[in-house]
Amino acid sequence: MKNILIIDDNRLIINSLSWGLGACSGDWRIMTALNGEEGVKILQSEPVDLVLTDLQMPVMDGYSLLAYARKHHPSIPAIAMTARYTVETKRRLGSLGITRAIEKPFSLKALAAAIADILKNDSTCGEFEGLPCLKTSFCS
User: Fold this and answer.
1) What is the pLDDT of residue 135?
2) Is residue 25 in some structural domain?
3) How buried is residue 121: exposed, middle or buried, by Cβ count under 10 Å (0-12/13-18/19+)?
């Protein structure tokens, strides 16, 4: 069983992703948090195989959560979700070592396929159909 932690302050997105990704694989346990602070608590108390986080959230944003995860759990792959993909977003994610991002709205099918590939291959970076390694590759 692989544990996927989804962090987003929008309950509709959390519920949709939980249901949709949960239906994609019987081998995935979906855990959720409404902000980065809740996400950190889960990372401290539960085994997590992949983090999927929004960037803009109250209490603790996704950047702070990803900085914590990189420092304390560097082997856990992460995907950032954002509605506002900008050059600054790319720069900030790159400075944290985050090489995967997906823009909202996105295809659940493409996201699920990318997650399956990441978890299967335990890869650190790469191109996935519908989910590029950011829009310009940090992988090369």
Assistant:
1) 32
2) yes
3) exposed
